[in-house]
Amino acid sequence: MKSNKVIQFIIVIAFLLLITFGASQYQAAENNDGSLRLWILDVGQGDSILIDTPAHQQILVDGGRGSSVLSELSKALPITDKEIDLVISTHDDADHMGGLNEVFKHYKVDKVWLTGSVGTTKTYQTFLSLIAEKQIPTEKVMAGSTVSFGSLQGIVISPLQSYDGITPDSQNSTSIVMFWQYGTETFLLTGDAEIPQEQAMIARGVLRHADILKISHHGSRTASSEEFLKIVSPKITAISAGKGNSYGHPHQEVIDRLKILNIPVLRTDQDGTIRFDITESAYSYKTGL
């Protein structure tokens, strides 16, 4: 009997420690100053970005590959917050979409944005099956689609055409590119859009300055042309890439281009998870979170 009481006591202590650790882990990330949080999550060789508004409405843009997004979300969100207002799947490649399947299993998702392009992989089929199983409302978007969460406003600026029901030659060409504004501060999230998509956006006149730019396609040489960078003219950029990845991302040409243009760059392969704290008139950032 005494042994059982000791075991129960140990279990209770362990549970309290777990709660305390979870609370303290989130406390470091808690929004105490009314700022919006833009997290570039370190999910290895992939993309996953979390936007957390002052009202704690969350938008998750991509989920990387596999389940690493779950541990990253646990750093950014309290243990009790298991609901995400909007998930945006920029395109159907597994290093962006794969982790969303894990998110669907562990979080309540209120809505999903996607282009409606047709993928051919098992990851894509699982993605659709989970959306159907969880009965998550979806919206197929293209340039002109808008969303707002309080003072945060977002607009899709690419793709410029509908890909609904189409299997593209390259999934990257369908990437959802979104311009976001919070007060006077702006940021541009680019998925894996490449130079042909950049040129199309330039020709259509939909590009403008953004304070923060998420560099497209993990810093591949197939994106981030000089013309594109000059038009966006970001104050700072962030690259999501895995340490020692086999693709050589980010490519040196892109790093050199940013250096020549005097644009600072943060990298998840070197800096770990990056968090921008954005007020309606300024921003700051922290790395290694």
Describe the structure.
Helices cover 31% and strands 23% of the residues. It is of the alpha/beta class and 289 residues long. It folds into two domains: 1-30; 33-286, 4-Layer Sandwich (Metallo-beta-lactamase, Chain A), CATH 3.60.15.10. The strands form three sheets. The protein has an eight-stranded mixed beta sheet, with no helix packed on it. Strand 1 and strand 2 (49-52) form a beta hairpin. Helix 3 runs parallel beside helix 4 (122-134). The longest helix has 26 residues, at 2-27. The model is unreliable at 9-29 (pLDDT under 50).
Put the structure in a nutshell:
It is built from eight helices and 17 strands. The chain has helices spanning 2-27, 68-76, 94-106, 122-134, 195-204, 226-232, 252-260, 268-271, and strands spanning 36-40, 49-52, 58-61, 83-84, 86-88, 108-109, 112-114, 138-140, 146-149, 152-158, 177-182, 185-189, 212-214, 236-239, 265-267, 274-278, 283-286.
Features:
7-stranded mixed beta sheet; 289 residues; alpha/beta; 31% helix
What is the top-level CATH class of the largest domain?
Answer: Alpha Beta
Domain count? 2
Q: Mind summarizing the main beta sheet? A: 8 strands, mixed
> What's the total count of β strands?
17
Structural class: alpha/beta
Global outline:
globular
SSE topology string: HEEEHEEHEEHEEEEEHEHEHEHEE
Low-confidence stretches: 9-29
Q: Can you identify the CATH superfamily of the largest domain?
A: Ribonuclease Z/Hydroxyacylglutathione hydrolase-like
H/I helix tally = 8
Mean pLDDT: 91
Biggest sheet: strand arrangement = 8-7-5-3-2-1-16-17
Q: Per CATH, what is the topology of the largest domain?
A: Metallo-beta-lactamase, Chain A
CATH architecture of the largest domain: 4-Layer Sandwich
